[in-house]
Fold:
Amino acid sequence: MSLYEAVQLIENGQTEKGLELLKKSLKSANDEEKYEAALLFQSLGLIEDAKTIIEDLVYLYDDDDDLKIMYAEILLDLDLEDEALEILLAINEDSENRVQALLLMADLYQVQGLDEVAEQKLFEAKRILPNEPVVDFALGEYYFSKYDYKKAIPYYEKLSNLDIEVNGVNKDLRLAECLSAEGEWEDAITFYEKGIQHTKDFHTLLGYGITLFQAERYLACIPVFEEAIFFDPEYLVAHLWLSKAFDLEGQYQEGYEILQKALLVDETNVECLLSAAKLARKLKNLDTSKKHLQEALIYDPSLIEAVQLLVGILFEEEDFDEIIGTIDLAIEHGASDPHFNWDLGKAYYGIENYELALKQYRLAYNDFNQEISFLKEYGDLLFEEGLIQEAKEIYSKLVDDEYLQEEVQERLDRINEIL
Structure:
């Protein structure tokens, strides 16, 4: 058989010619050569060709568990789960391949949503080989996939000092992710620093940067986020984290510029627009902040934080009509916030529509009846509208406030004279 020649052709980039030679040679190949050919087909992703060979060999060598394991892997790759399970169950409990069969069964059951059964198979493998790193890794991966990081950590920790790699997964980064998810920032950083020496990609750098950020190492996370952006400048989550880091370091201009770059990628990203608005305000550029907030609300009129920030600016500008329009639009789009009633009350008061102002203050009362400033505004409005008894009830709630006590008492004395 010209297996060697076929391999050489494939390695030299002449894949089509190499496969043609390989398939021709199979007609006269012995079983060992067929097995080697199946391995080659499997490595090239030609799973159906590998299956055709291996299923014949499994039939011929029924007692060869290595062949059964390979056949089961191929069947799983082809999503033939029932057939794969049948093969795996045929492997005897005293077989040297039992643990490998159990690990494959665990994967299969997990895919089928039978998590408890999958976990049982993993523990069975652990009982057979209690110190086998591949089993510990499988248990770690199982819990990692279930977001049960606390349970995954001890299994990854057992691997941390071993010079092994399973399925191309960086064990140090897995442990770092788990520790970070559990809030163990400093320990996670240690393993990120180890793992990143071997694996550096956007996901890794983003996780590392976020962990540094959570550990309040803002200066340290800045270059990490910058490198993450270099890897993938179109995934804007790194821009947002980087801008937060600059913000907390008081570098508002740098943070704002990062968000401007993000908005060149996606001008409709409301998170970037909202963050840019906040930084523009810190840079004392009120018009720019207002512009970003208005843009954010074009794309999401119900974004409550943007509404609140814009309304704050509009109150400073005394643009009461715009406040009413902004809040009404947010409500039309399903937004709900107790402050809307209070803000509408103040805005209607600003345009001297006292009837609607009073209506909004009444609606807001249940949410803000312990808020001193609200009660003062509400009491004053009631008094101005001649609702003396109601005003008295509201003012009575303020008589113990040290800052308003004198003013409120004078108003109550006046009310008592009227009554």
